[in-house]
Hints:
By secondary structure, this protein is α/β, with parallel strands linked by helices. The chain has 2 domains: 11-222, pyruvate-formate lyase- activating enzyme (Alpha-Beta Horseshoe), CATH 3.80.30; 228-290, CATH 2.40.50.140. It is built from 8 helices and 10 strands. The protein has helices at 11-15, 23-35, 61-70, 90-98, 115-120, 127-140, 159-172, 199-222; strands at 40-43, 77-80, 102-107, 145-152, 176-181, 228-236, 244-248, 259-261, 273-281, 286-290. The strands form 2 sheets. Strands 1-2-3-4-5 form a 5-stranded parallel β-sheet. The N and C termini lie far apart (44 Å). The relative contact order is 0.11.
Amino acid sequence: GCDHRCAFCIIPTLRGRLRSRSIPSLVEEARRLADQGVVELNLISKDSTAYGRDLGREAGGLGELMAALSDIEAVRWIRLHYAYPHGLPTGLLEQLAHNDKVVPYLDIPLQHASGPMLKAMRRGVTREGQERILDRVREHVPDITLRTTFIVGFPGETDADFRELCDFVEKQQFDHVGVFTYYQEEGTPAATLPDQVPEDVKAARQAELMALQARLSGQRLKKLVGSVVDVLVEGVSEESELLLRGRTARQAPDVDGQVYIVSPPPDAAVGQIRPMRVTRAGEYDLVGELIKR
Length: 293
């Protein structure tokens, strides 16, 4: 569930308010997964930074959970998704900065940057507020990888609103961005708003923003060529049985890019985390060769 009431979202109506599982129950599940060979844990909810508030833990719950999960020896990477941009718990930032198992990666769904759009979406935050949050994260964790998502074509979105969003993305230099076109979900406040944006305009804005992000992402990844990064081996690539595929700690499963491993050694196996020298970079993906540590 979720305690927020964003104008475009039906989740609170369908699933009710936030409900947190206890730390012991989550640790127990994580141990079972680790016993099955899982080395990466992805923590996902509709509002992960609010974890534990309904259990009386207030802002400390998420940091406590991450610390407890990191005690599981077989777990190597812990990743957080959906950190709602309403202030981030200090405990979370400390885990990101100092816990070697918590990867320096944060998924913060911002949804827009224009003041009028954020207000219409009922996000409860301004562009300036979002910028302060991002500055705080980068101050605590200078090497953080940031992922976010945006909605284009929300009712009333003007060309000026969209241009402001593009300007925001250019200035913030996010590592990963997902862009969705607004969907008129029946039963949500936004569904009955005037000034619904035509579908062709939504699609054009989505394509433009994704093209911008592809350029920015490619520029960032090219800086990694020649460097050595740790890679989680995930299996044989769909591109060729001669390639292995994997991810760095800065790439979440399914939503970010991936790594293609060329000339893999015979002892390379799924679930291993091994060093790789980056030889090529695209807009979202990396190519490289495994090396000895």
